[in-house]
Amino acid sequence: MPRAKLVIQRGGTVGKEFLLTETESNIGRWDADGGIFPDVDLDQDDPEAKVSRRHARILCQDGQYLLEDLGSTNGTFVNRGRRLLPGNRHPLNDGDEIIVGKTFLKFHYIR
């Protein structure tokens, strides 16, 4: 069973945690009309709506977590590097910083 979490570092509720318990976790904003219910729902934490409804996803394969941008408007970044290309899976390490819109998240393994 996957055991990791994202913690909001900047933007929205600092310190808020999202547990990544599934093999695939979607990051985005809730949209009942569109039937979008992301596992990491940043709707309350993104007042300027810089996070796309379907922004990114984190996959767990063979114990390795991978981050993938889903063609978001404002991009997905890891450790302030260059913008991830949609569909390219970027391996995540413990302590990595993920930026979606104006929200900064920290990735942690749960021991």
UniProtKB/TrEMBL annotation:
Chain segments annotated as transmembrane: none
Domain of life: Bacteria
FHA domain segment(s): 25-83
UniProt cross-references to PROSITE patterns, sorted A to Z: FHA_DOMAIN (PS50006)
InterPro entries, per database record: Cell_Proc_Reg/RNA_Proc, FHA_dom, SMAD_FHA_dom_sf
SUPFAM superfamilies assigned to the protein according to its UniProt record, in alphabetical order: SMAD/FHA domain (SSF49879)
Pfam families, per the entry: FHA
Protein name: Putative conserved protein, contains FHA domain protein
Organism of this sequence: Chloracidobacterium thermophilum (strain B)
Organism lineage string: Bacteria, Pseudomonadati, Acidobacteriota, Terriglobia, Terriglobales
